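Changelog-linked ticket: 2-acetamido-2-deoxy-beta-D-glucopyranose example.
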Amino acid sequence: MSLSCLVWLLCFIGQARSLLEVIQAATPPRLNLSTPTCRQHIFTHSFGNSYGSPFVGYYNPPSNCAYTTTIFNLSVVSRGRQYDRLATLWLGDVEVWRTSTAMPTQTGIHWSFQKDMTIWDTLLRSRDPVKIIFELNNIIDGDRYTGLFNATLEALYFNDLYKGKGGLHTAEHIYAISTQSSSKNTTSLFSLPEDSGAVNLTLPRNARSAVVSIMASGNAAEEFWFTNVPTEYVNTFPGNEGWLYGYSPFREVQLLIDGQLAGVSWPFPILFTGGVDPGAWRPIVGIDAYELPSFEIDITPWLGLLADGESHIFSVRVVGYDTSAEDGIGSVGENWWVSGSVFVWIDHESRETTTEGFRSEIASPSFEFRPTLGMHTAENGTTTNTSFYYALTATRSLKVSSKITSGGKSRLVSWSQNLSYSNIQNMTDFAFNQSLAMISSGNHSSSASDIVSSYTYPMNLFSAYKVQSEGATTHPGSVFCGVDRSKLTNGISILSFLTGTSTGPKTLKTRQNVTSNYHWNSTIVEGTAGVDTMDGEVWFSSSSTPGFKGGVRKHYHYAKAKDDALVEDRKGWGTIPVPSTEPLPVFEGEPEV
Ligand SMILES: *[C@@H]1O[C@H](CO)[C@@H](O)[C@H](O)[C@H]1NC(C)=O
Ligand SMILES: *[C@@H]1O[C@H](CO)[C@@H](O)[C@H](O)[C@H]1NC(C)=O
Ligand SMILES: *[C@@H]1O[C@H](CO)[C@@H](O)[C@H](O)[C@H]1NC(C)=O
Ligand SMILES: *[C@@H]1O[C@H](CO)[C@@H](O)[C@H](O)[C@H]1NC(C)=O
Ligand SMILES: *[C@@H]1O[C@H](CO)[C@@H](O)[C@H](O)[C@H]1NC(C)=O
Ligand SMILES: *[C@@H]1O[C@H](CO)[C@@H](O)[C@H](O)[C@H]1NC(C)=O
Ligand SMILES: *[C@@H]1O[C@H](CO)[C@@H](O)[C@H](O)[C@H]1NC(C)=O
Ligand SMILES: *[C@@H]1O[C@H](CO)[C@@H](O)[C@H](O)[C@H]1NC(C)=O
Ligand SMILES: *[C@@H]1O[C@H](CO)[C@@H](O)[C@H](O)[C@H]1NC(C)=O
Ligand SMILES: *[C@@H]1O[C@H](CO)[C@@H](O)[C@H](O)[C@H]1NC(C)=O
Ligand SMILES: *[C@@H]1O[C@H](CO)[C@@H](O)[C@H](O)[C@H]1NC(C)=O
Ligand SMILES: *[C@@H]1O[C@H](CO)[C@@H](O)[C@H](O)[C@H]1NC(C)=O
């Protein structure tokens, strides 16, 4: 570390003390982060007017340091007026962390977040320096948007002993499903639906296991995909054109191998810190805002087909529900940022993996859509729509299985998923008042372990805007919002399990509820001190089976916020009861769902 950087870090730490900390509840990667075997500063970079100008540098593993575990610590400070921004971190062409920013204040905010990077070990230990790219597209435009995001990334290394069967066994190969553009000093995100989302990959012939990990998040017209309407309903309320987005509130992210479906995700609905009501997410950001979720698909059943030494097409698609399509599947709006990586473990005893009885049992999802338009007919016979209510439900099951043989041993391998989804909305007041009750749940299992994983994401959301529909976010306006939602997961991360960073299941329960009343003048990113009010709570409780001493078995965090301040903040090494998400109280003007 250079002297100037040390000086910078000291002022950074000094400054951070006087800034408001904006937190996210999460399980820390280890019990104790304070005594690493070694650490290194990777970069400090100020993101000002940074569209298309990511930080680009080189990552080298630390020298003269024996370590097994790598943890990245990302810290950010910001002061001024600014939107929330998405940021992505890349090792070459592979995306390793997708995060988003908190919204700053004129007096300044800071946060830091740690992520265990050990599953990426093969990239982190590469003999040649690996290009590290961090993109945070921000806008500074003189007086209006003034907040820079100053980011520092450091790595902490620990020499943990992994005690699971076989200890630590990181994937031998990691391949990128991305635009593979790092040689041009840019990130490699696919923008769907415009880009192909496809790459040709040639896998080793003696692979033993392979898992694909995908990150996908909706942006612009797709940021609030879960409140979108079927396309033929976007003009339900004339006079408010452009307020409703189309392609339905259902999204499925698909992985295809040579054009055949290998697995799907019905994504977790992320609410970014400017989302719905910017006053709702400070000083506690929404669930997963600092580490957007990825999802895993075990593609081991495909290995026999992929072991021919030829290239195969891996592609990621995002689809919505289309009322007029026979199978219900349709396109989506602009845009989804998507990338993936294929983790491959080798069977060193084998020259080639072969397969028998490859079976793919996949049917189209089944959908049910029930719309009701509320109408009013005036005395002169003119009819107007006064409310739009609808319920959309979907279910799907899929299973891919085969018998694969490598090193003279045969195994039955499979990946199966069951998913269900329900989204009920009612909108009134030209859709300025919107109610949503959504629940997405499912389970999946892989032959990598005998554990069936499950998830449930309930979300109730009400928002009422008072705005001029033209320039809604840049003219005076206000929004009242109530949210109550949870993320409940129970099961195994196949990547952590195969790597050895965990040896069994993890249970996570988190719930967040917030009400907020927010007013702005010239830009929605700045509220009005003394007028705005918010109340929010977050409960977080997890129990895990870490593969190393020093890993976290139980963790809880409870925090309560009022008007930009934490009034309670408790965390520790145990679990707490997490109350369930409830239907929202009946707010004034709330359309019934
Ligand atoms: C972490 O380890 C250090 C050094 O052993 C110790 O001083 C500190 O109290 C530990 N912190 C926690 C939270 O256990
Ligand atoms: C790409 O970034 C690296 C690291 O900062 C730099 O050395 C190199 O000159 C850049 N290449 C181009 C074409 O800008
Ligand atoms: C992460 O970095 C920030 C800023 O450098 C620092 O204040 C914080 O203590 C670091 N966290 C850990 C766990 O090292
Ligand atoms: C961010 O970095 C810039 C450039 O170094 C500096 O002028 C600014 O004061 C920093 N912002 C904060 C909040 O520390
Ligand atoms: C994959 O390779 C085939 C054959 O070379 C080529 O036609 C196709 O365009 C490639 N696809 C992608 C996504 O690169
Ligand atoms: C009412 O909504 C339907 C569905 O979006 C639309 O086709 C129709 O034009 C609307 N009627 C009026 C009077 O705005
Ligand atoms: C009919 O009445 C409504 C409500 O009173 C009014 O807004 C509309 O302009 C009238 N339309 C015609 C054609 O008179
Ligand atoms: C999915 O549902 C089917 C039918 O109910 C069941 O046999 C299968 O075990 C389920 N799969 C998972 C992963 O739970
Ligand atoms: C959150 O839910 C709890 C009940 O679990 C309730 O007491 C509290 O008032 C709710 N807070 C908000 C801001 O809705
Ligand atoms: C918005 O305007 C009102 C009325 O002039 C004023 O009281 C308030 O401070 C302004 N808010 C901001 C954020 O400038
Ligand atoms: C919309 O919601 C607001 C705030 O809750 C309420 O004051 C207003 O009456 C509602 N409008 C309608 C048409 O229900
Ligand atoms: C939608 O909300 C409005 C206003 O609360 C209500 O009158 C209407 O009955 C609701 N629609 C349905 C189908 O529940």
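Closing comment: Example verified and attached. The longest helix spans residues 3-18. Residues 3-572 form one domain.
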